[in-house]
Amino acid sequence: MQFQLSLFLHLGWLSGWKAEDECGRGACRPSPGNLLVGRSAQLTASSTCGLKEAQKYCILSYLEGEHKCFICDSRLPYNPHTQPNSHTIENVIPSFEPHREKTWWQSENGLDHVSIRLDLETLFQFSHLILTFKTFRPAAMLVERSTNYGHTWKVLKYFAKDCAISFPGITAGQAQKVGDLVCDSRYSDVEPSTGGEVVLKVLDPSFEIENPYSPQIQDLVTLTNLRINFTKLHTLGDTLLGRQQNDSLDKYYYALYEMIVRGSCFCNGHANKCEPLQQVQGDIFSSTAVVHGHCVCQHNTDGPNCERCKDFFQDAPWRPAVGAQDSACRACSCNGHSERCHFDMTAYLASGGLSGGVCEDCQHHTEGQHCERCRPLFYRDPFKAISDPYACLPCECDPDGTLSGGICVSHSDPSLGSVAGQCLCKENVEGAKCDQCKPSYFGLSASDPLGCRPCGCHPLGSLPFSTCDMDTGQCFCRAYTTGPRCEECTAGSWGPGDHLHGCAPCDCAIGGAYSNTCSPKDGQCDCRPHVTGRRCTEPAPGYFFAPLNFYLYEAEEASPLQGLAPLILATALPTCDVYFQQQGNDFTMDRGNIILNKNQKQSLRADEQNK
Ligand SMILES: *[C@@H]1O[C@H](CO)[C@@H](O)[C@H](O)[C@H]1NC(C)=O
Ligand SMILES: *[C@@H]1O[C@H](CO)[C@@H](O)[C@H](O)[C@H]1NC(C)=O
């Protein structure tokens, strides 16, 4: 009866954790309980009496040398009617049933090193351990725990009647601060002979804990596995002697009435309720007493231990809830264009701790941390909110003529005079869509960084405004002008030089020049001997043009005039002679000039041009 009272007290106010069951007002915590309840399958002992066959064991009598002996048979689980002598480890799990005092776990006789191990299915918070012994408490034992499912272990506390002998090198006495590893001798006395307890509090209630979520505290108060190693039996002085007698071994073994591993589901202050992680196999005799391991997370957190923010609640870094601060996770703001985001510390710090959520895969042609901008090649409809799925409209710009392949002004800015959707033309391009070359430019092309090339029309050779064909670049030439830029004169003309009207016809004098072609530079016609002037219209110095009748006269006289230089060589107008001879006789003469009829004129011109 005595130990039942103390058990009652332990379950009550020894928990060490203040209940905070309302998540709305800050940190909250699921109610603690005995982690063993419902987990018999996860509790094992390295030694149990009578597992393979019935074994005898004895108890010390008050009269020295007298023993009372019993049978242990643990081949089947305990049953008050059919298996009253079964002492398997699951008997230590409190059941509050009337036969509690009659059930216990017991190890095999005479074994010093025996361990009990609890393997939890997830990380739990652990506050204290209470062991209630049927026999003497161990002369030495230790408690260790793992937070990584048994990969590594850390001793929480040593217990020994004589710490210096059992655990040399471990400080004996009480812990002075959080995390001190000590050997405690208060729980290893040989008295009482039954009902004695070993109590381990993970955090001494007298310690001031500033932040229960500091890594150091977290490391102390959480566990996935617990192991209790009994390392030395109390043998009441007959150690040496007793070990030589089979009888005395039967009196020494470990026996536990009850074990309490008090703890709670570990939710970082973000849940007040937990549910099963998976269907745990075991004796769930009272589902309300079971401490489940999977937190029902609040504050927009997620994970078995509420150890992260829920999807899309990544705007602020995850934090445990402490006291009045719920440290709830905040939703990202993506203007309705994304349902996914991640936390980015750089963005969070850059915003001065305002927003660290970066939206992913922004839809509706948006981009930016919050999907708050239109993507390149799209612009913001000034009449729609950015949260509107149609807020971003495609730029209607000719990609060839627009800077950066078709971008337009993303949003209106009165201070800059820019209008949303306005195309940003390359230098030599114009038009609302940047699809036309500016005047005097041609050949719109994507590869040209300026968009169009200058026509480069010759200012004198081309028509006014120096325009050219938009595609080919051919300039529009004035008369007598040719070439892609109107920079050349046509055959039979010359210039343009500084000539006022570009090219001018050669206009070579028929008779004075060999042909109607002239130098393109200065228009000089190809003059016959002793004829000069650009058009070959002037006689060379010392010569004059004789009228035809004089020429004929001379021919008739056939003698040069005295005292004068030869007036004109007979070759001065030979083509006329030749021509007239070749053409026969059909011409007229009028006061020394040859009169040609219309046909003769044309054929004479054609002949000239053919030369
Ligand atoms: C406790 O016992 C187990 C085996 O039963 C052993 O592997 C482990 O090392 C022991 N722990 C310590 C701290 O001695
Ligand atoms: C102790 O028990 C063992 C076997 O269990 C037996 O061989 C031995 O003789 C016994 N010793 C005494 C002193 O009874």
Core attributes:
single chain; 611 residues; Jelly Rolls; two-stranded antiparallel ribbon; 9 helices; rod-shaped; disordered N terminus; binds 2-acetamido-2-deoxy-beta-D-glucopyranose; secreted; Laminin subunit beta-4-like; disulfide bond; repeat; LMN_ATRN_NET-like_EGF
Could you characterize the architecture of this molecule?
It is built from nine helices and 37 strands. With 611 residues, it is α+β, with helices and mostly antiparallel strands. It has a domain at 2-47 and 106-291: Galactose-binding domain-like (Jelly Rolls). Strands 1, 2, 5, 6, 7, 8, 9, 10, 11, 12 and 13 form an eleven-stranded mixed beta sheet that branches. Strand 36 and strand 37 (593-595) form a beta hairpin. It is rod-shaped. The protein binds 2-acetamido-2-deoxy-beta-D-glucopyranose (2 copies). One 2-acetamido-2-deoxy-beta-D-glucopyranose (NAG) binds at residues 245-246.
Topology:
Elements: H1 2-13, E1 33-34, E2 43-45, E3 55-60, E4 67-72, E5 105-106, E6 114-133, E7 140-146, E8 154-160, H2 163-166, E9 171-172, E10 182-184, E11 197-201, H3 215-221, E12 222-232, H4 239-242, H5 246-249, E13 255-265, E14 274-275, E15 294-295, E16 301-302, E17 308-309, E18 340-343, H6 345-350, E19 357-360, E20 366-367, E21 373-374, E22 378-380, E23 392-394, E24 429-430, E25 436-437, E26 441-442, E27 453-454, E28 481-482, E29 488-489, E30 493-494, E31 504-505, E32 513-518, E33 525-527, E34 531-532, E35 538-539, H7 548-557, H8 574-583, E36 588-590, E37 593-595, H9 598-610
Parallel strand pairs: 8-10, 9-10
Antiparallel strand pairs: 1-13, 2-6, 3-4, 5-13, 6-11, 6-12, 6-13, 7-8, 7-12, 14-15, 16-17, 18-19, 20-21, 22-23, 24-25, 26-27, 28-29, 30-31, 32-33, 34-35, 36-37
The structure holds 2-acetamido-2-deoxy-beta-D-glucopyranose (2 copies).
